[in-house]
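Slide 14.
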Amino acid sequence: MRFAPDRPLGLAPATIGDYRELARRRLPRQLFDYIDGGAYDESTMRDNVADLERIRLRQRVMVDVDTRSTATTVLGEDLALPVILGPVGLAGMFAPRAEVQAIRAATAAGVPFVESTVSICGLDEVARASVKPPWFQLYVMRDRDFAEGLMQQAGDVGSPVLVLTVDLAVVGARFRDVRNAMVGDVGPGGAIRRGLDLASHPRWIKEVALGGKPLTFGNLESAVPGARTPDSFKSWVDAQFDPTVTWDDVSWVRRNWSGKLVVKGVLDADDARRAVDAGVDGVVVSNHGGRQLDGVPSTVAALPAVLDAVGDRTEVLVDGGVRSGLDVVRFLALGARACLVGRAWAWAVAARGEAGVAHVLDVLRSDMDVALALTGTTDVADLDRSILIGS
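Slide 15: predicted structure.
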């Protein structure tokens, strides 16, 4: 995975890679690796980036591109650019009230923010921070009554879209978390290592551990009121993530949710068809950022088959590997409606808070604008395979 070279902390970040480096320096290792890492040997996570990089854009000249537009409509919502801040669990551990900072930046930029089930800031707090309510991401849990309660909360704050994540029947082996003693039977030695890692970052302690309180799982506080440690959170995950979930459960969610419903975590054309048959309004082609099953295809490799299967029946979104606005253009040229970004905004909020997220969104917009102009395109709605070489 290629990123910009290290930059001194005093210099303004120019790329998403710069924000990654700033986040690496500012966060305890266990938290940075939680954002940055993938499952097993992380080959799928690397492929998400590398496969996108290999797609070449077709530069065109002498075309009138004086007026250009990145605006689009996704699931009935007008967006300033085809980008959505995707759900990131534990984000409030990276910066004080990070989800609140992120939705403010997203709203100012004219794009949606997706609140994670396992966010630190709860739905009510995040919704109060913006004139546009967040989308809400949900897992199907063993406790269906609790899941129904979360859907009710999302409806009460006006969430227009429910993003149902379906690729966590079990949690993939994330070796960085094991090495950092965030999961598993860590014992006294692991707990000490974890504590020393936190203690070696006094700025994080002051700004986040103390200044960002309460560090609880806002949406889950009634279910796991004591879940303030990796061990207690992992116990809750193991107890609630449901390996028995089937497409019948998606139909159950559809019956309990009156807004738009999107299924996230689809890589297979047959699964995409089943999702549409269950009544969803959209699918997100996603491998969970390479954090679940290593060795599966990158999302850019999986996207065409899903589009062929259901692209004329539903809106197809995608995530995974977006490190610039050029990547967004690549995905749209292949047929995606919009892109979700996760790590990009997580690194940015850890590095510079709301200003960092706002800048990353501006970088994506600026990159897209340049790509439109130099491929001879004036509107993102006109992006198709004709702007790609060899596609």
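Speaker note: The two ends are 23 Å apart (CA to CA).
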